[in-house]
Amino acid sequence: MVMCLDLFSNKLSTILAKFNNEFKNAVELY
Fold first, then answer.
1. Distances from the Cα of 4 to the Cαs of 12, 22, 24, in angstroms?
2. DSSP string for 1-30
3. Predicted local confidence at residue 2, as pLDDT
4. Would you state the torsion angle of the CA atoms of residues 6, 12, 16, 18, taken in this order, to the nearest 10 degrees?
5. Which of 3, 7, 19, 23 shows the smallest number of beta carbons within 10 Å?
6. pLDDT for position 1
């Protein structure tokens, strides 16, 4: 259970980091 939760949290942070990166790129373009 804890391992599954850790995996989910890791995935979520990866998605957030990717989204944050794309957002920064979009801001720099404008």
1. 12, 27, 30
2. -HHHHHHHHHHHHHHHHHHHHHHHHHHHH-
3. 73
4. 100
5. 3
6. 61
Higher pLDDT: 25 or 4? It is: 25
Place of tokens 């939760």: 5
Model pLDDT, residue 10? 95
